[in-house]
Amino acid sequence: MSDIKTTIRDFIIDNFLFGDTSQAIEDDTSLIDNGYVDSTGVLELVFHIEQSFGIKVADNEIVPANLDSVGAIAAYVENKQRSAAA
Asked: What transmembrane ranges does the database entry give (predicted)?
């Protein structure tokens, strides 16, 4: 899971914080509440997740429970990958 978290965290820092590593993004930091990601950013994040991890994010899965923190995204990706492998 740490590789997934690193990939997601690096994407957020590079694309939404423009490389500013001074802001700590912990596994449970809310990306939406802290203003790191807006509605357009969520779509960019979904595209990145699909491309990086080879999964398809359904429209009804684009919810804060799946995408609001690095930890939530990593858990979501792992569940999708596990489901696809079964």
From this structure: none
